[in-house]
Amino acid sequence: xxxxxxxxxxxxxxGKRSSAIVELIDMYPTxxxxxxxxxxxxxxxxxxxxxxxxxxxPSVKEAAFFQFPRCPKNLSRLWDDNICLEVPRTQFYSxxxxxxxxxxRYTEWLKWNGTRLHGEWDTxxxxxxxxxxxDTGTDFDAFENTNxxxxxxxxxxxxxxxx
Length: 163
Known about the structure:
Elements: H1 27-34, E1 64-70, E2 94-100, E3 104-113, E4 118-131, H2 155-162
Antiparallel strand pairs: 1-2, 2-3, 3-4
């Protein structure tokens, strides 16, 4: 998900774009650093405050991880009308576990266990791999239209991102 943030104390960063990989978990340490506060030692996440001074710095993370549920209303059309708003998590149908790197977004869709509240790793419903190697960050949807997970030559990328 693209992230837009502005730090009024860093006016030189206004309008700058970075391709660094960050996650929402990085917000707290970033905001604490920008405010001059010492974050707790056991805090998860990594500050990306340095990007406000130099937006061309390389990513401090190799990947971002996320998950999201799907709740199809019609099981014969799993990927249509499948938003889980106001659906108890015990009733989710599947969970997508994703990793986003500079080059790829990889997702495994697992059957959801509503009793144990986690995905069943032995029941993979689908796999998606999107190639972002040429992604300049100017068109968020341009590189998410063709699933290349099962294309010849992509086996190594799928294995690496799965593991």
